[in-house]
């Protein structure tokens, strides 16, 4: 019962923002559509993302726009592939890369940040300097360089990371773990001096138990807020790398890849850029609205816990 009041307060604050609920609804719908992409595409009557429909091209061999009669509600690309189908499958690729990369970056960042903040000393110095080293490079330029290296030959890290989705996830994790590590380290430095940590040490709790049972639960709120903002950033980073030809590789559809293909023909085939661009815009906006709602809902409970501690 003691823990139900903060949870109830959180959900009341969360549900009070209509924009947050709208963002959450869009994200849930997007996840459901991406997970059931083959079913959605077949229900609409569209062909698969890699099946060209040459009959849908004009008599001059150019792509045609949205048409209900032709069965291509978002039109087709220069190869006659259905844009709707590719946008739906592109959502699956973007979410897969962003969610996996964010989860791995959080895992690495939380572990290293908690260890640096709790133990201090030489370990803190080594991890902090390593973090500073990665932060010294512009993240996007570093991602481009790493992605280029991983797309050559058999990949990178001795062939463990292969070109394609795996390389994109590896690159995003490598350039983003530093932010959560810095955040967690600062939180742990503040928490480790509080009375409940001293009490845990006094009764003989091990370092591992203190970190897992006492520190990590108090890090859940800031890490959750960070994750809701990191996911859309990683979606944009994946799209940018795919736009440059360094991300998800064909034939797997990707929104960034579609935007790159649509750029030279935008004047004559606006739909090929408009629909994947709108999907990318709405997805990033929805995650940002969700992040604002989570941050606002957690703000007061966090402050109350700090005062109580």
Structure description:
The chain has 309 residues and is mainly alpha-helical. Helix content is 71%, strand content 0%. It is built from eleven helices and no strands. The longest helix is centred in the C-terminal third of the chain and has 38 residues, at 271-308. The two termini are 20 Å apart.
Helix-strand blueprint:
Blueprint lengths: L3 H12 L2 H18 L1 H8 L38 H37 L1 H15 L3 H12 L14 H27 L3 H8 L4 H37 L11 H8 L8 H38 L1
Structure characteristics:
single chain; 309 residues; mainly alpha; MetI-like fold; 71% helix; globular; disordered C terminus
CATH topology: MetI-like fold
**Count the helices. How many?**
11
Largest sheet: none
CATH superfamily: MetI-like
Give start-end ranges of low-pLDDT stretches.
Answer: 301-309
| Text of the CATH class | Mainly Alpha
Subunit organisation of the chains: single chain
Rg from C-alpha positions?
23 Å
Helical coverage, percent range: over 70%
H-E string: HHHHHHHHHHH
Structural class estimated from helices and strands: mainly alpha
Count of distinct strands: 0
CATH architecture: Orthogonal Bundle
Number of domains: 1
Average per-residue pLDDT, rounded, comes to 86
- What fraction strand? under 5%
For the terminal residues, how far apart are their CA atoms?
Answer: 20 Å
Shape: globular
Summarize the structure.
With 309 residues, the protein is mainly alpha-helical.
């Amino acid at each position: 019962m003691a823990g139900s009041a903060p949870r109830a307060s959180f959900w009341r604050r969360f549900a009070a923002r209509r924009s947050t609920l709208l963002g959450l609804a869009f994200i849930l719908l997007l996840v459901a559509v991406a997970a059931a992409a083959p079913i959605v595409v077949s229900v609409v009557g569209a062909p698969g993302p890699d099946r060209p429909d040459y009959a849908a091209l004009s008599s001059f061999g150019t792509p045609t726009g949205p048409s209900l009669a032709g069965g291509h509600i978002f039109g087709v690309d220069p190869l006659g592939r259905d844009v709707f189908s590719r946008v739906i499958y592109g959502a699956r690729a973007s979410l897969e890369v962003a969610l996996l990369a964010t989860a791995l970056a959080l895992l690495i960042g939380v572990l290293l940040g908690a260890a640096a903040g709790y133990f201090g000393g030489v370990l803190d110095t080594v991890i902090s300097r390593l973090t500073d080293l990665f932060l010294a490079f512009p993240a996007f330029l570093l991602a481009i360089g790493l992605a280029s290296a991983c797309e050559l030959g058999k990949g990178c890290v001795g062939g463990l990371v292969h070109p394609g989705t795996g390389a994109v996830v590896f690159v995003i994790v490598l350039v983003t773990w530093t932010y959560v590590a810095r955040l967690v380290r600062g939180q742990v430095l503040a928490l480790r001096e509080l009375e409940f940590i001293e009490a845990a040490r006094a009764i003989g709790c091990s370092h591992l138990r203190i970190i897992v049972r006492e520190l990590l639960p108090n890090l859940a709120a800031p890490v959750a807020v960070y994750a809701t903002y990191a996911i859309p950033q990683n979606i944009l980073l994946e799209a940018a790398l795919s736009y440059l030809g360094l991300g998800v590789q064909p034939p797997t559809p990707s929104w960034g890849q579609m935007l790159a293909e649509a750029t030279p023909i935008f004047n004559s085939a606006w739909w090929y850029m408009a629909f994947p661009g709108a999907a990318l815009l709405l997805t990033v906006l929805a995650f940002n609205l969700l992040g604002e709602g989570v941050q606002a809902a957690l703000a007061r409970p966090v402050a109350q816990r700090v005062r109580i501690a």
